[in-house]
Every structure is written in structure tokens, then in C-alpha cells.
Amino acid sequence: MIGRILGLIGGCLMFLALTVEAQRPAGGPASFDHARHAKLFVACSTCHGDVSQTAGARFPTVTQCATCHDGKPLRIVAWQPRVGPRPSNLTFDHRSHQALRVTRGDTGVTCTDCHTPSGGGWMQVRAPEAAQCLSCHRAGSRSHLALSDTACATCHVPLSRAVAFTRERIAAIPRPPSHAVAGFQGAGGHGIMAKHTTAREGVASSCATCHVQPYCTWCHVDAPEVKQIQALGFHPLAGAVPRHLDPPANHARADFELRHGALAGPVAQSCRTCHTQESCTTCHLSQLPAAAKGLYHAGPGRGRGAVTTARRPTTHTPTWKTAHGVVASASIRSCSGCHTRESCLTCHVPSPAQRGGYHPVSYLTRHPADAYSRSSSCAECHNQAQFCQSCHQAAGVVAQRTLLGAGGYHDGKRQFFVGHGQAARQSLETCASCHVERDCLTCHSAQKGRGFSPHGPGFDSERMLRKNPQLCMACHGTAIPRR
Amino acid sequence: MKRAPCGLRRALLPLLLVAVPLGAQSWRLRFDAAAQRVAFRGITADSVLESRTLTGPEGGPVSPDGFAVNCFNETYCHFYRPGEIRRGLPAALSTDLTMWGLGVPGLRVRVHARLNTDFSGKELWPGTTPRLQFAEAFAEYIRGGLMVRAGRLLDQGRLGNAGLGIVDGARATLRPEQLPLEFALYGGWGLARGSLLAVTSPAVNPLLDYAPTTRQIVAGGSIAARLPRLDAQVEYRREIDPITDYLVAERAGLSASYRPLTRMSLSVGADYDLAQGNLGTAEATLAYSAPRLWITVGARHYRPYFDLWTVWGVFSPVPYRGVNGSVAVGVVPRVQLRARGEWFRYDASATSTPTVTIEDRGWRAGLEATWSATPTWTVQGNVHREKLPGASSQGLDARVTWQVRPPLAMSFEGGGLERPLEFRFQDASLRWLGASASYRVADRWQVSATADQYWESRVRADPASLDWNQWRLGLRASVTLRSDADRWQLPPGRLP
């Protein structure tokens, strides 16, 4: 037993250790602290060599660091020089820039001109800023992010070719001011900008610098049909660029659900950029509208598109459950936009095997209050004989004798038998849930009963005789009195 | 034993329905199986010799064991004892099938069938017989603006059965391209009102009263208009007994929904019984909806409707007229308060007697609150009171809903109510607690369970008071199957 417990504890400890180890950040080359080494080096070339002889950056080797960091007494460092492609989207080349400046007679150029901030001390190193590039690459008075489309490719490669760009650096790409202009998200904004290009790639380089195809596909379900999007490449970290899409202003209108069919038009031309046919099925469960045929199907090469959420139409007030009948009768096609026929059947043809969703849980006890004076018509969903009488029969709450009142059920009113007429005329449906016609005709029949007339205010005997004389004969036989 | 082969055939029918869609280009099939355990306790009629009755504490006659009795100038006096507790296990399997792409453009087939049973074998619970019932089973063909359906049809409208006009027949609908109008004509054989069964079915005549021997013939039509701010429909429906050629029913109806402003709508509806010359049920509701405010005001006229299969209509049921209103306010973003009320009064029934006074007016009101405490917790409370002729009720209840995590949701509820009756010495009181859980097993598989316990007592001064305590348990499983044609992962949507 003790062995099992110790084994269990050991297993838990091992699991804990593995979990902690798994959460440790992956090791990588630590960044070099230039300022800390300021008193050791007198020239950049000590470590970086002559960058004018190479296109990219040069870094010291492990052996160079180990000259000091050999463990006696300085600790050995885990420095590894960077290899592979540049982790940025710049086209900068030290060699050509150095050669160009020499050609122009500028032989005094040093590393600190670009890599040290103005007024900074020795080895206060940082990456150059765009403004430094623009000091030579003159582009008028516009700021870096407001430059013309043709200016981007001077310094940047398309994002699809910046294969070593890290997620963090992609996410930190600043948002150009053009993206904040009203209407930019529409076809008249970024759509036109993407087309204004002289580049051979077929898409504006200002787009391609920061975006790749999957970014556009996120909104554009028509991406396979838009050549500017197809001209963009791919990047594994495309999702790092923050994405945001505001719905068009007309989508926020309270009556948009009611009007969107008309706004879409016959082929939904304006909808097909962001919506697939599947967007429509979020609400149109039973049958797609004809205009939806103008939309593309979701599928390979297309994005998810705008996520649609079904909102309650303004007509659907909190009491809608009990009040929808009139609107449903007036316009069932509107209902079928969002509801399947099955959803109607759930309540209107109730299942005997489920706790109903329309009435509250306690309704079996509460139902007499609604049955006597109906808040809604019970007969809309329940057949009086099949539902009410059969259940009352099983419970013994049905007329056992033909003579009303003899059973003594209605003992809440003294002489109820004599004065039942008002209750009957007010709640005849309720009477008929326990009584059958024979009970009443015991007295209210001209032929076999006691001759008490059941006809009350508004009874049109001539009309009844004209419409169905058989009903008259049930009590009067052939001697039907005429007015 | 004789029923077994028939039952087998009926049980096999849903399987055949499953087999059929294999030939269709696209189909959608949903199975929904449910069962519940129910119990109730009724009353049993009894009698005692008048000579054996005693005088009770209230001064009236009682049986030797204390039951209040009713003596009606007969040898025997009558009373009701508490009945035995009866339990049922109703179960139902629903199959909802839609198929299209059957080789003929515009052709679609739709079936909604239910297989019912009561595992207790006692068939106590309404709706469990007959075993197989069809709500819909039709073929539809659409070409241009013309739509034709044939089979068992269920079309929503103001007239007809179950709020839905059910006929076994055909319906043609024409929608002209350049007009915002829709014309429909239909005909066939009708069903019993509020039921999926014919009027000749024994299940719709459990007390063996007068029963029609043949089904009625139904014919009708409608004209509907859909304008930018107005939807309206006028309907007419006529039902005839084919044996006598007399009318069973003749009704007309009007429904309209007008939206004069973006947030305002007016709904108006009325039906008229042409056979008896009465205005049936009519209502008008004006609704205003703002993001956090909903208001409705309305008026209603309610009169029960009876087919001419029965003599009930000649007893001249009187209508009531009432006004109603509701308001819902989003007080703060996570709290919504709702209030509703209705007041009504019956027309004069011309039957009053000096010995019996019966209420002729009533009102109902309720107050509800919903607090969405967090995205996963919602608390609802409800207080209601109905002071009505015949029976009243008042009570409160509360429900807590917990979205445990996406596939699992649970709710807990409880409450109590009092229910005094006007025509019987019996004030019922009820307390209950309930819980339900639903679990989405997979994308289109869902199971749910409910458990409720009720404690009910009928309050009377004599031993006829009874209790109706019970556990009610329910289980439900549903699965939706689809063809590949529409098996895309859909974006999340919230149905109203």
C-alpha cells in the first residue's frame, strides 16, 4: 500500500515537473546588451566586421564571445549568431548604400550615423528609423505611412516574401492614416486603392507590404474572383495583423432585418463581398431566398465571411409568444425567413412525451384559470375531446350522469344547477371539456328534454336553419319553429 | 395480439422514410425521441343512501366518513372520493424530413410524422393514440410564381385547425412576378379541430357522444399582400358534411400587420363565423420596440368557435371584450423588467338568476424580471395573478440558467401558486422544484433531461381534499442528419 502511495506521489511530482518544464519559454539567442559592453569595444567592426562588404548584417561568432566568456571567471553565454533570412520586410543593403555614399563623396560615414540616436553615447545601439531613410529617399513632406503607393517598394518587400518576420513585429506594424478615413472599409476605399498600382504584381504594393491573401479572405468571400487579392502572396503569420470589420451603417438600423431583402436586390450584388449563401442560412433556415443564389457558396479558397447573428425583429416584443398569431397569419413568408415549419409544430402540435415549452412548468395545476376565460384559444393547439376530455376522463372529472348538478361536483355555488346558464355561456368550452352534448340536451331539447331553450342573445335561427338544418333537427325534430 | 402486425407496419414506416432520401440530391432529416414519467390523481364518484347522511360541521349533509354530499331529491346522495394515483410513461418519436433535388427542378417532399406510445400500457396521457400520426406529408412543386402542394398539408392561417389549416388534399399558390400579391386555393378532406386526426377517429370522441361518420370536405382560399410597410391576408374557408351537404363550418378571416414607423407596428386580426353570423375572435395590438424598451397596448374580443358537428354553438356562447398591455424595460444592460396585464368583461349572457351570482369580468397581470448576471448565469423571476371568472390563480416562480460550458447547459427552477375555484370548494396550492440539463453530444446530436417534483394539495373542509404529489421525469434526444449539400459549418446564429 505504501509503495502505491509513494508511486502515486512520485507520479504527481513527475507530472508537475513536466508541466513546469513545458511552460518554460523556449530558449533562444539572448539579445546582446551593447551598452553594458561599451567600455570593452572601441569599434563596431570588432564584432560586426566590415558591413560594407556584405549585403546583410554580420554578427560575431560564438568563438569571439568565448574569448572573454570562457567560464573563468566570466560565465559562458548562450549566444548564437543569427542565421537565415532577415526578420523584417526591409530591402536594405549595407554594401550598396555604403558604395552609393562613397560615390557621392561622403567617406566619413560611420555605423553610429544610423544606429545611434542623435546625441546618444557610444554603443547606445538601436535600429534605424524610417525618418532616416526618408532623409535621402525624399518623398515630399508626407510622413512615412502617408507616402504614395510607389514609395513602399523602395524599402520594403511584400509581406509574403518577409518569411522570417516574427509575429510580434507583424502585429506591431502601425496602421496607416489612410485606413482611418471614413469609407475605407468599403469598395470605394481600400478596394480602389488596391487597384491603383503600376506594379507588375497586380496589386498595390502599399497593400502587399503589410497584407497577404488570407488577411483579405477573412472578409472577402469573393476572394477567388478578385484579382488584386489573388495577386497577394501567403505568409504563415498572416493573422498577426489586427483585423477588424465594421458592418455597413445600414446594417445597424433597427428595421434592417425587415428591409435587407429589398436592399440586397435580385442578385444580392452588394452582399456577395462579405456574405456567402451560408450566411443567409443563419436565419433563413427553411428556404433560401431567391437573391441568395447570387451569393457564393462557402468552400475552399473562400473565407468565413461576415459572421451573421439573427436579431429579433422589432415586432418580436417580449410578449411575442402569445401575440404572434396575427402577424404570422398576415405574412407567413416573413416567418419562414427564420423559422422552420418544425418550430411551429413544436408548440402547435404538442408532443405527449415532453414538458411543453409554451406553458410554464406548473401549468397542469394552473390551467383551469386559463381554461375558464381564455388568455388565448386552447383549441389552437389542443383538440377539446382528444386532449381535455380524455384526460378528465382518466381523472374522473367528467359528467357521470346526464342530469347536470346531480353529481355535486360544482359545490362552490349553492344552487349552481339552477344558475349555471351564465357560467355556461361565458365558458362553454370549459363545460364541454367534461360534459357531452347529451348531458345538456337532457333539459335543453324541445323533443326529448324539458324544453328549456338554450338559445341566447344573437342567435340567428333563420341563418342556422339555412346553413345546417340537421343541427336544428337534433332538438326540434322536423317541427322546427320559424320566426 | 391482433394489433401486432399493424403496429409492426406502422413502426416500419419511419424506417422507410429514412431509406427514401438516399435517392435525393439533398435532404434534411431530424429525429426527436422523448419520453416522460407522469402521474396524476383524480376523483372517483361515489354515493350514499340519503338516510345514512349526517349533518356536517358546516351544516350541510355529509357521508358517514365525512365527505360532503349532494342530495338531489333522490334516494342516494352523491360525492367524490380521491381517486387512485395513476402513472403513465408517454413516449414519442418524431421524424421530420425534407428532400429536394429529386431529379425534377422545383420538386420537394416533406414529411413530419410521430410515433406515439405509452410504455405503461394504460394510455392515460392524451395524445398517445393512435400510434402513428402525421402532421405533414406532402410533395411540393414550384415553377415560377406557381407552387402546388399535394398530400397532408399544414398551412398557417387564421382559420382552420390548430391555428394551422390541415387538410388532406391539394393547395395551389400563385405569386405574380410584378405584383406584391399572393393568391391561394385549396381543397380536400379536413381533420378534427386542433388535432392530427379525422373527426371519425375514436380518439377525438373519448366520451362516446354523437360522432360524425364521415370526414368533412374542405375548400378555401386566401389573398395576401406584401407591401413595404404592410402585410395583409384575407382568408375564406368552408367545410361541408358530404353525406348531407350541409355546412360544418364557414368562416372568413382578416390578418394585417402595418409598420408605420421603424419601431412601431400595428397588428389587427379578426375572424367571422359566416355560418352562425358571429364575430369570432378579434384583436388589435400596437407595439413599440426600442433597444431597451418594448410597449404594447391592445384590445381583444374573444368568442369560442364550435363546428356545426356539435350543438354547442346554439347555446349562444357570449364573447368577452378586453384591453391589454405590456411593457418591458432594460433598466440596466443586464436587467430587464417586464409587466403585462389584461382586463376583460363578458357580454351580457341574459341568463342571470337571483340565486346564483357569477363573476362576469376578470383581470390578469404579471411582473417578470431577468438578470443576466454573467454570460453563463441568468436568473429569472415571475409573479403573476389572475382574478378570473371560474378560476383564479396567483403565484411566483424563479429560474436559474447556467451555461456550464458550450455543450452543457443546466437550469433550476421552483415556485408556488394558489388556485381557488369559483364553482367548487377546492383551493389548490402547489409547490414545485425542477431541474433540466441539455448536452450537445456532437454537432447535431443533443440530449436533455428534466426532473420536477410537485407537491400539490387540494384544500377542502372535508376528506375530499387530495394531494397530487409526484415526480415527473423526462428524457429527450434529437439528431439532425443532412446530405453533403448543406453540411457546411455554419456561422454561429441565435434564433429568436
Q: Could you name the ranges of chain B where pLDDT drops below 50 across 5 or more consecutive residues?
A: 1-5, 14-22, 485-496
Specify the oligomeric state: heterodimer
Helix content of chain B: under 10%
**Largest interface by residue count?**
A-B, 143 and 175 residues
| Overall average residue pLDDT of chain A | 81
Low-confidence stretches of chain A: 15-29
Specify the number of helices of chain A. 25
Using the alpha-carbon principal axes, give the shape of chain B. Answer: globular
Structural class of chain B: mainly beta
Structural class of chain A: mainly alpha
Q: Which strand-content bin applies to the residues of chain B?
A: over 45%
The largest sheet of chain A is: none
Radius of gyration of chain B: 26 Å
From the spread of the alpha carbons, the general shape of chain A counts as elongated
Taking Cα atoms only, what radius of gyration of chain A do you get, to the nearest Å? Answer: 42 Å
Percentage of residues in helical conformation of chain A: 25-40%
Question: Quick gist of this model?
Answer:
The complex is a heterodimer of chains A (483) and B (496). By secondary structure, chain A is an all-alpha fold.
Give structural notes:
The complex is a heterodimer of chains A (483) and B (496). Chain A has 25 helices and no strands. The radius of gyration of chain A is 42 Å and the shape is elongated. Chain A starts with a helix and ends in a 7-residue tail after the last helix. Chain A is mainly alpha-helical and 483 residues long. Residues 15-29 of chain A have low confidence and may be disordered. Chain B has a 22-stranded antiparallel beta barrel. A two-stranded antiparallel sheet of chain B has the order 2-3. By secondary structure, chain B is mostly beta strands. Chain B has one helix spanning 3-19; strands at 26-49, 54-55, 61-62, 70-71, 76-88, 90-100, 107-118, 132-143, 146-161, 164-174, 181-190, 217-226, 230-240, 247-261, 264-273, 278-290, 293-302, 320-332, 335-346, 361-374, 377-387, 393-405, 408-420, 427-442, 445-459, 470-482. Chain B is globular, with a radius of gyration of 26 Å. The longest helix of chain B is centred in the N-terminal third of the chain and has 17 residues, at 3-19. In chain B, a hairpin with a 2-residue loop joins strand 22 (393-405) and strand 23 (408-420). Chain B is built from one helix and 26 strands.
